[in-house]
C-alpha cells in the first residue's frame, strides 16, 4: 500500500503476469461496511425464518390439541345426554330419581358456605322427614295451584353449594335431611322475595341465624336463613322481587350463603322446582 491506497495483487494459478488492483481507502471501507451490512441482513433473515418456523410449528401443535379437546367435548356431551336419558327413564319407575333428573352433579366436599337448622337426633327421624317429603312431592306433581301465589326465581345471585334432600352434615358428619338449598354468595349480596306475601317471621333463630319467613297464601311459605341484615318486619306486605335481606353467615353456618326453603301446606318441597 502506498499514497494511502490499498493495492491488491492478483496471482493466477498458472504462470502468468501478476496483476495489481489499487483501491482508494474510501472505496475499501464502503465495501467492508456493505459486506458487514449484508452479513447482518442475512443473519436477521435467518433468525426471522426460524422464528416464523417455530410459530408455525406451535400453531400446528395447538390446532392438533384443539381437535383433541373438541372431540373430548363431543364425547362428554354425548355421555351426558345418555345419562340424562337414563335418569329420565328411571324417573318413570322410581320417584326418588325425579330430583336427580333435574339437578347438576352435587359437589360433596364443597368449600362454599352451607348450613341449616338443628338436625334430627336419630336416623329414623331423618327417614320420616324424607318419606314425608317424597309423599308431598308426589302429591304436588298432581296439583296445579294458582301461579300468583307460587314462589318462582332465584332469591339471590350465587351458586348452589348444597342441595335439597339427604346429605352429610357439615357439623356432625351424619346423614341428615336438608330441607332447603344453600346458595353461596358474597356477604352483603341482596336477598329478594320470590313471591308476594306477608312477613310472618323476621328475627334471629339459633339454627337459621337472622331469619325471614314469608306467607304467600295458597299453602306456600318461603324461608330465608343466615342473613347478615333483615330489612322487613312481621306483618309487612312484600311484593315479588322486593329486597328483604342481605346474604350473611349467621346461625349454624360454615360461610356466607343463603339457606332457602319452600314449604307447601306445612311440609318442605324441593326449591329447585321453583327456580
Give a description of the structure.
By secondary structure, the chain is of the alpha+beta class. It folds into two domains: 6-65; 113-274, Glucose Permease (Domain IIA). It has two helices and 14 strands, in the order E-E-H-H-E-E-E-E-E-E-E-E-E-E-E-E. The strands form three sheets. Strands 3, 6, 7, 8, 9, 10, 11, 12, 13 and 14 form a ten-stranded antiparallel sheet that branches. The chain has a two-stranded antiparallel ribbon with strand order 1-2. The protein has a two-stranded antiparallel ribbon with strand order 4-5. A hairpin with a 3-residue loop joins strand 8 (197-205) and strand 9. The radius of gyration is 38 Å and the shape is elongated. The chain starts with 5 loop residues before the first strand and ends in a 6-residue tail after the last strand.
How are the SSEs placed, and which strands pair?
Elements: E1 6-10, E2 19-23, H1 25-93, H2 123-141, E3 159-162, E4 165-168, E5 175-178, E6 181-184, E7 190-192, E8 197-205, E9 209-217, E10 220-230, E11 237-238, E12 243-247, E13 257-264, E14 267-269
Antiparallel strand pairs: 1-2, 3-6, 4-5, 6-13, 7-12, 8-9, 8-11, 9-10, 10-12, 10-13, 13-14
Amino acid at each position: 500500500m502506498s499514497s494511502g491506497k490499498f493495492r491488491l495483487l492478483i496471482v493466477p494459478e498458472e504462470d502468468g503476469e501478476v496483476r495489481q488492483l489499487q483501491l482508494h481507502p474510501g472505496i475499501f471501507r464502503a465495501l467492508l461496511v456493505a459486506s458487514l451490512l449484508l452479513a447482518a441482513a442475512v443473519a436477521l433473515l435467518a433468525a426471522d425464518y426460524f422464528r416464523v418456523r417455530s410459530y408455525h410449528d406451535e400453531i400446528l401443535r395447538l390446532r392438533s390439541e384443539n381437535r383433541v379437546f373438541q372431540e373430548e367435548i363431543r364425547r362428554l356431551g354425548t355421555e351426558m345426554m345418555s345419562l340424562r336419558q337414563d335418569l329420565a327413564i328411571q324417573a318413570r319407575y322410581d320417584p326418588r330419581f325425579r330430583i336427580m333428573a333435574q339437578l347438576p352433579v352435587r359437589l360433596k366436599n364443597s368449600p362454599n358456605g352451607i348450613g341449616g337448622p338443628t338436625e334430627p337426633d336419630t336416623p329414623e327421624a331423618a327417614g320420616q322427614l324424607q318419606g314425608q317429603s317424597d309423599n308431598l312431592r308426589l302429591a304436588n306433581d298432581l296439583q296445579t295451584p294458582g301461579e300468583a301465589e307460587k314462589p318462582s326465581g332465584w332469591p339471590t345471585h350465587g351458586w348452589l353449594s348444597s342441595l335439597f334432600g339427604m346429605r352429610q352434615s357439615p357439623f356432625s358428619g351424619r346423614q341428615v335431611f336438608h330441607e332447603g338449598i344453600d346458595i353461596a354468595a358474597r356477604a352483603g349480596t341482596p336477598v329478594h322475595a320470590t313471591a308476594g306475601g306477608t312477613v310472618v317471621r323476621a328475627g334471629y333463630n339459633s339454627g337459621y341465624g337472622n331469619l325471614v319467613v314469608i306467607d304467600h297464601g295458597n299453602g306456600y311459605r318461603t324461608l330465608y336463613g343466615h342473613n347478615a341484615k333483615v330489612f322487613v318486619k312481621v306483618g309487612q306486605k312484600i311484593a315479588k322481587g322486593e329486597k328483604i335481606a342481605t346474604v350473611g353467615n349467621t346461625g349454624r353456618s360454615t360461610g356466607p350463603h343463603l339457606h332457602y326453603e319452600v314449604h307447601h301446606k306445612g311440609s318442605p318441597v324441593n326449591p329447585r322446582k321453583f327456580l
